[in-house]
Specification:
Length: about 475
């Protein structure tokens, strides 16, 4: 295309205007980052020997100790009890009027994989292109210096599962403590489980999975919806069978090098321990019919399964218990599924699971910014049928048991990792303040982007901002 001279002059002029504007934006952004003092970053605190004395101790796994000591040494809980002796040289913390709890665990998040969910795509690393991405590892994508780390842990949440999303098989989740300068320092179980978005019967187009009335897009015939679901399950079954065969071929070649070498397939290689039932698989499912389909699939494939979501899990209690499938419940803050559902149907679900004998825990299901609300999810459930004791266990001991790390986390017991929270009240009460926080025995500063902003603006007067 040939340009007229006037058009050319216009384009040159616009480029001259655009370049200084771009430079100005970059300079301003660089200045903003340079002014950041790093207060919202993951500070690692300090190690040492600590003695929390004369405090009320909620062990979770046993009786409450009304006046006792908790000794933290070498990153672990060294002693607990009314008569626990204080080692010489230990840093003493007066716990009079305070309560000691185990750190809370959120077993269903994307924390560290998403910084700004809307508007800054480069800060989101939750999903890969394609339908089967078993080799994708959340562990490698977690940002230890995410602002969400401090914001979350200062509210008493010390451990989370961070999971990938998207596709049929999203990848592998990671179990991390919220302390450490690198992913390796944070990881408790780098590869905590395989995430499968189990196919569901969806009669509406668009995106689904959460609570809320109605649907998006055009309605699909129910029989067609079943057909689509079954097609996806067949694809999933085929992937599992292929991974199983791949593992057998690799084992055979390892024993007999005269056999043809197996072409490396990273996706199937990643799936081998899961299809063999050696490691757990997280299946996302909400409705009763889909949860029952997961249970059938788990039984058929002989794998270990956990439901993530679980809006109607209590309705499928028989199948879940029969197949030893636990539930990571993520719907306390969701809206009822159907228009005629009671407003409190999702608030009551944990108590119904408790009554039905289902293994469960409560999670926020959040990407990062709202994971800090975990204690309030459990607290809300305790207002709708769940006992206070079980509500506390649902965010401490129960997730530890479900994730297979109850020997390390979830309660105040000798030998366990010193993930300890000291508060001035009930940890599930929004009015309660965290006074001391330990993760892996390290005392951490109770600062975050939120506390820094609060300190910056709390003393402002109208005269400071108005002319």
């Amino acid at each position: 295309m040939r340009f007229q001279s006037s058009d050319f002059r216009f384009q040159v002029d616009m480029k001259k205007r655009f370049i200084p504007l771009t430079v100005a934006i970059l300079v301003a952004a660089n200045f903003a980052f340079s002014q950041n003092d790093g207060a919202e970053q993951n500070k690692t605190g300090r190690a040492g020997t600590f003695a929390i004395i004369n405090a009320r101790i909620v062990t979770v796994s046993g009786a409450v100790i009304e006046n006792g000591n908790v000794i933290i040494q070498n990153g672990k809980i060294a002693a607990v009890g009314a008569g626990a002796s204080v080692p010489s040289g230990a840093e003493k913390i007066d716990g009079k009027g305070l309560t000691v709890f185990p750190g809370m665990i959120d077993a269903g998040t994307n924390l560290g994989l998403t910084e700004i969910g809307q508007g800054l795509n480069a800060s989101v690393d939750t999903a890969e292109v394609g339908n089967i991405n078993a080799n994708a590892k959340a562990f490698t994508g977690v940002n230890p210096h995410s602002a969400h780390v401090n914001v979350t842990r200062v509210n008493g949440i010390t451990t989370v599962v961070s999971s990938p999303t998207g596709g049929l098989i999203s990848g592998q989740a990671t179990l991390i403590n919220l302390v450490g300068s690198t992913q390796a320092e944070m990881a408790i179980e780098p590869l905590a489980g395989l995430v499968v978005n189990f196919p569901r019967i969806a009669q509406f187009g668009g995106f689904g999975g959460g609570g809320g009335f109605g649907g998006q897009g055009l309605q699909i015939d129910f029989n067609e919806a079943i057909k689509r679901r079954d097609t996806q399950i067949d694809e999933l079954r085929k992937a599992f069978k292929s991974a199983e065969n791949y593992g057998r071929a690799m084992d055979a070649y390892a024993k007999d090098k005269t056999l043809p070498a197996v072409l490396t397939d990273l996706k199937f290689e990643a799936m081998v321990p899961y299809v063999r039932g050696e490691k757990v698989i997280f299946f996302t499912a909400e409705r009763e019919r889909d949860i029952r389909a997961v249970a059938k699939f788990v039984a058929e494939m002989k794998v270990k399964g956990i439901i993530v979501g679980g809006q109607e899990a209590w309705k499928a209690a028989d199948e879940l218990k029969k197949n030893n499938i636990a539930v990571i419940y993520t719907n306390i803050y969701s809206l009822p599924v159907r228009e005629d559902d009671p407003y409190d149907s999702l608030y009551e679900a944990p108590s119904k699971m408790q009554q039905a004998g289902i293994k469960y825990c409560i999670s926020t299901g959040e990407a990062g910014p709202e994971v800090r609300d975990l204690p309030y999810h459990a607290g809300l459930a305790s207002s709708f049928g769940l006992s206070k004791e079980d509500a506390l266990k649902s965010v401490t001991l129960y997730p530890a048991q479900i994730l297979g790390v109850a020997d390390k986390l979830g309660s105040i017991e000798v030998g366990k990792m010193a993930n300890v929270v000291v508060t001035d009240g009930d940890m599930l009460d929004p009015r309660t303040n965290v006074k001391y926080l330990f993760i892996e025995g390290r005392m951490l500063p109770l600062t975050s982007r939120h506390t820094e902003l609060f300190d910056s603006f709390k003393d402002r007067k109208s005269s400071d901002i108005l002319p």
